Amino acid sequence: xxxxxxxxxxxxxxxxxxxxxxxxxxxxxxxxxxxxxxxxxxxxxxxxxxxxxxxxxxxxxxxxxxxxxxxxxxxxxxxxxxxxxxxxxxxxxxxxxxxxxxxxxxxxxxxxxxxxxxx
Length: 119
Hints:
mainly alpha
């Protein structure tokens, strides 16, 4: 089922709201261009799926007790999970966090095929 992109008339209010929320980041024209983008729906779906990864991480640290001593391990887990969404699993297995952080994402052959991507 194809998802049609909303027209600019339908989103003029959304563009104004973006400008209110991010007054220094976007111009109205940039927001309008983004709303007219053909891949906007795919970008939103990607952001929602990535939010599912970040939300537990964020909630974990939103407590009254100090958790800075757990930050490194939690970030290492977050990095591994995010990389696992688009890098071959065999390249991630048994790698230290330092080695994971040094993976060159521009090297051909390390990325998953489009059919294997989680979106």
